[in-house]
Amino acid sequence: QVQLVESGGGLVQAGGSLRLSCAVSGRSISSYVMGWFRQAPGKEREFVASISYSGSTTAYADSVKGRFTISRDNAKNTVYLQMNSLKPADTAVYYCAGRSLVTNQYDYWGQGTQVTVSS
Q1: Are the CB atoms for 111 and 6 separated by under 8 Å?
Q2: Which residues on adjacent β-strands are paired with residue 100?
Q3: Which of 34, 33, 31 is nearest to 21 (CA)?
Q4: 3-state SS of 78-106?
Q5: pLDDT tens by residue, 48-75
Q6: CA atoms within 13 A on the CB side of 37
Q7: Within its chain, how far is the Cα of 17 from the centroid?
């Protein structure tokens, strides 16, 4: 059974930083594109960032480009999201997800970690 467990969320002031981690167990992440998504209260879940199998290719939502950095350590089976210059608009539950080669869908999801940015 594949499990994704996010950590690192919390309360931070605007302009501050947080680093989210997503530890994966049950399967190697080396064959998965990994992504971060977020969902704010009353809004739909949205894409934040993704990273290719090797880590050589990344993609970001326009709203976080230049402030957030996604990375992965396949040896540790962990994905990270470094978030700098945080804004109140970044307040949301952040989810880690894995996209398999076979389905090309994000099949695996974590339970989420809350990030709250105060003004």
Answers
A1: yes
A2: 32
A3: 34
A4: EEEEEECCCCHHHCEEEEEEEEECCCCCE
A5: 999 999 999 999 999 999 999 999 999 9
A6: 18
A7: 14
